[in-house]
């Protein structure tokens, strides 16, 4: 069996920690076996390794999440990078083409697709393995896995079975999206399951759909013609048209950690970051990503979340409203994790007199990591090294850097930096347009950079 994890979305439900660059699956608020803070995607991949599925897993994602995934999972996990966001059908179709032409997966092999961030016991992933047997036994087009409901929820979609003989699986009649409580009760009585977004098919099933659309089956060719894929969900494009769908019940623990009230229920600690929560602040959680202390006095059943993107103080039960409240609020991400480390925006100003922007960042580069050899066209940068030692490359010359050094990087200047020990620097960008797209990369690896620099100074 091959697994495809879908990693997408940005979302505002966990604002201010989640943003366009850091989706909920990347928030390090859970605790791993070593009592270290970890994210949902790190937890899921650890569980997949536990059941022997890690090596057969690929992740379908967008360009904006590549560095975050590599930062948290390393570079050994294959990533299928969508050229643009076009919903789940194009993402899964591209993943199918990747498995078909870039791996040894056969057309008869079973592919399971699931979200990258389920909060479940490891038994959940063992149950996914049973989908292959179910496809063998039933000859179905699609095999889904549904969670046996524990209460009549209005938040989830339901997989509704056909009426008839009870088996260890169900034949799917139809789907019902987010019913009211009364209808949800009725659906549970009919043995309906919560739709947790897990389904399996034989690779040939999706490859044949690509053929019918007249699209290339080769991964690289399909990637180049990605915009021709219909912008539609897999549910509408494939599931609703399938003639024979079965579903496997899962009766273990499953939870959607998509809101602050559900996420805090699973956090191992009441407080992350600097601050004080008074003893009479019962069932209150504080997550503070800033260096400033936050004090919470006499406030119970609340979430206080502080990040460079903003500050949220909310009653936990009311916290799901944040998505609606933040609708239309748009700003650049103020914190990002990259494959080499992370950065936090400290200040941003725009000066109308000369039409210039000034952006100040605090950048952390992990020991042994390096920023690519690149240049910018619309800005200059001033770097002040505040911690650690490393090497700086500029227009073919490499020299050492240390705390107190100041580097001025003019526009069109090729430059890179490597941390011989963990580096911290303050970067001030000055230019007419400060956007992440203003970058022209030449080399990614430090070995390539050294090979193309003629001078090395101590």
Notable features of this structure?
Jelly Rolls; Spore Coat Polysaccharide Biosynthesis Protein SpsA, Chain A; 3 domains; 6-stranded mixed sheet; alpha+beta; 458 residues; 11 helices
Distance between the termini: 53 Å
| Radius of gyration from CA coordinates | 25 Å
What's the helical proportion of residues?
Answer: 10-25%
Going across the major beta sheet, what is the strand order? 20-21-22-29-24-27
Integer tally of domains: 3
Overall CATH class of the largest domain: Alpha Beta
CATH superfamily membership of the largest domain = Spore Coat Polysaccharide Biosynthesis Protein SpsA, Chain A
What is the third-level CATH name, the topology of the largest domain? Spore Coat Polysaccharide Biosynthesis Protein SpsA, Chain A
Share of β-strand residues: 35-45%
Low-pLDDT regions: none
Using the alpha-carbon principal axes, give the shape.
globular
Domain Nucleotidyl transferase: 4-268
GO molecular function, one term: mannose-1-phosphate guanylyltransferase (GTP) activity
Organism: Sporolactobacillus laevolacticus DSM 442
Keywords: Nucleotidyltransferase, Transferase
